[in-house]
Amino acid sequence: MSSLTLYVDSNYVSPYAMSAYVALKEKQLEFEMKTVNLDRQENYHHLFANASLTSRVPTLVHDGFSLSESSAIDEYIDETFADTRSYPVDIKQRARAR
């Protein structure tokens, strides 16, 4: 079983974090969610900054591999856990969905 952790803002207001959250939920994947208090600038704390290339949320950590930016996370989830596709298989339809 793989380990998935999604870092989101502590106020739960980021639409980008929501996108990654929905992608994980739609795939019915088990994951841990951790919050980062942006008001206190916890995103610049070395523990989080080491995991996030951009020091922003959302950040996904999957078995030691970390990825930031919601669109990259959504595509990574879709391609890594391909049993149920979130994006269309057809290249042109997939481009429109993005």
**Low-pLDDT ranges:** none
Shape annotation: globular
What proportion of the residues is helical, as a percent range?
25-40%
CATH architecture: 3-Layer(aba) Sandwich
Strand order of the largest sheet: 2-1-3-4
Beta fraction of the residues?
15-25%
Whole-angstrom Rg: 14 Å
Please work out how many helical segments DSSP would assign: 4
What is the CATH class?
Alpha Beta
Main β sheet profile: 4 strands, mixed
Could you characterize what this model shows?
By secondary structure, this protein is of the alpha+beta class. The chain has one domain (4-97): Glutaredoxin, CATH 3.40.30. The chain has helices spanning 15-26, 46-49, 70-80, 91-97, and strands at residues 4-9, 32-36, 59-62, 65-68. A hairpin with a 2-residue loop joins strand 3 and strand 4. The chain is globular. The model has no long low-confidence stretch (mean pLDDT 89).
What distinguishing features does this structure have?
alpha+beta, Glutaredoxin, 4 helices, 98 residues
